[in-house]
Batch of 2 targets.
Target 1
Amino acid sequence: QQQVKQSPQSLIVQKGGISIINCAYENTAFDYFPWYQQFPGKGPALLIAIRPDVSEKKEGRFTISFNKSAKQFSLHIMDSQPGDSATYFCAGSDRGSTLGRLYFGRGTQLTVWP
Amino acid sequence: DARVTQTPRHKVTEMGQEVTMRCQPILGHNTVFWYRQTMMQGLELLAYFRNRAPLDDSGMPKDRFSAEMPDATLATLKIQPSEPRDSAVYFCASGVLEQYFGPGTRLTVT
């Protein structure tokens, strides 16, 4: 059973546009929601993360929006650049009971056209 | 700078052969994860360890896969015998709140 569902599977955006990736989770015990970015031939790397006590977190052009009641969260990439082309994974974790285990979504392959 | 290392980076082997992948976690990280990545299944957790003790290996096919941490600086993942369906990229990661991934081992079983 996929504990974190991610959409879309792939996304094509024009340079300068906004990229939006959505995730939904089932486990209400999740208390940590990171996003990982993976470039071809590399391992995933933490991009940005949020905890459920805030509704939004922004770091540069990257923003996480979090809706606890809907059990949904999303990544917005403003002014998307070709260098943002990568695969993005959302994840959730119940840090207390699973000692840091992350439940990953299936990933979104983002392509930003120049 | 501190990083997770994995060897080998690429491995091509024939069906039925034993494959051993190695991982050196970041010094001081006491939680280590093994993942498998395929186009079809995405990132799958195979097993993870804390303080060298296995916490969960329910993601691994038990009949052919085994994971160990002989010491705090080495984690191993073995497949015996290997099968073509094992072809994938295998990642090791260490850390808890933030997981640091290694570069992966790309395994091809023919």
Target 2
Amino acid sequence: DQQVKQNSPSLSVQEGRISILNCDYTNSMFDYFLWYKKYPAEGPTFLISISSIKDKNEDGRFTVFLNKSAKHLSLHIVPSQPGDSAVYFCAASATGANSKLTFGKGITLSVRP
Amino acid sequence: DGGITQSPKYLFRKEGQNVTLSCEQNLNHDAMYWYRQDPGQGLRLIYYSQIVNDFQKGDIAEGYSVSREKKESFPLTVTSAQKNPTAFYLCASSTQESFYEQYFGPGTRLTVT
């Protein structure tokens, strides 16, 4: 039973346009959400996070939005750059979860020059 | 230059053999983790350790074993009991306070034939 779902396996956008990556979750105990970025044959790197007490967190070109009632979060990248082409994993954690993160399957983003 | 090292990058073994994957970190992190990634799948937690000489099973611990004798090291043994050992293995570490921001190594691709 997948608790973190990234239903679209891939996304292709034009350079300079907005990329919107979506993530849904089912566990209402999750209270902290993160996005990780992964290049081929490398380990993921932390990108941005958001606590459940907020509905938006922004860091440069990256913004994460959280809709708790819909159990949905999204990552916006504006403007998209070719170097953003990677796999993006959504992850979630619950307080008291003993340091465990639950990851989605990932979305492959391709930014076309 | 702090970080996490995993060696080797590629590993080949015959079925029925145990194999140990190395993970070392010099970030002074208390917590360490082992994940497995399969094609089209997210990261699944195998084992994690929040402190030296202590570790817990993750979601898919069967067929694996770990030890945490030193803060810097968290080796993973893939035993012959693991039914589908061929995968990409990722090690990560974090502070206990910010366990959600995990730092990943470059990974080891294990192929068992």
